[in-house]
Design goal:
The chain has about 170 residues and is mainly alpha-helical. It has a domain of about 110 residues: Arc Repressor Mutant, subunit A, CATH 1.10.10. The chain is about 60% helix and about 10% strand. The protein is built from 6 helices and 3 strands. The chain has a 3-stranded antiparallel β-sheet. Helix 1 runs antiparallel to helix 5 and helix 2 crosses helix 5. The longest helix is centred in the first third of the chain and has 29 residues. The mean pLDDT is about 90.
């Protein structure tokens, strides 16, 4: 059992900083889900999976790689993949180079769905996250996020390939 912390509880500016971040972490996913569900019949998680596949070579990734990008268990990703497969947006196959792995491939219909969903999602991200900030604040937010990510894990998570927009 771990020792209880002897540090003082959060207060003042530290508490305000944490409370604002915790609120964003709760509110933003709900807002993103609402827009994507309404406009495209997707959750933000499903859109993220499909977006990553859309920008992968051959629109294909190992499920384990996708799970890492999405910070997801294979079980959660598999349930999402089943939903996407039922709509013919994704297909899973055994990796021909190593049968222990499963590949996820975005279908042509899935690529069309990503293309259809992206403009509304981008508008929502701009409106909720980017437009309220100055260019300098955006750079600061990016750096703050990278520092927090590095304190959680050594690897940085999914990053868009060079030249990709959306």
């Amino acid at each position: 059992m771990s020792e209880p912390s002897t540090r003082a509880p959060l207060s003042g500016e530290d508490l305000e900083t944490w409370a604002s971040l915790a609120t964003v972490l709760e509110w933003l996913p709900t807002a993103l889900d609402a827009q994507l569900q309404s406009a495209a019949g997707l959750t933000h998680f499903e859109y993220g999976v499909m977006y990553a596949l859309a920008h992968a070579p051959g629109r294909t990734l190992r499920m384990s790689v996708l799970a890492g990008y999405a910070n997801s268990t294979l079980s959660r990703l598999s349930r999402a993949a089943s939903r996407l497969e039922s709509k013919d947006w994704l297909k899973r196959t055994t990796d021909p180079t190593d049968g222990r792995y499963t590949l996820a491939t975005l279908t042509d219909l899935g690529a069309q769905k990503v293309e259809q969903a992206t403009p509304g999602h981008v508008d929502t991200v701009r409106r909720l996250v980017l437009e309220p900030l100055t260019q300098a604040q955006r750079r600061n937010l990016r750096e703050v996020n990278r520092r927090i990510l590095r304190s959680i894990r050594d690897e940085g998570g999914w990053r868009p390939p060079t030249g990709v927009s959306g």
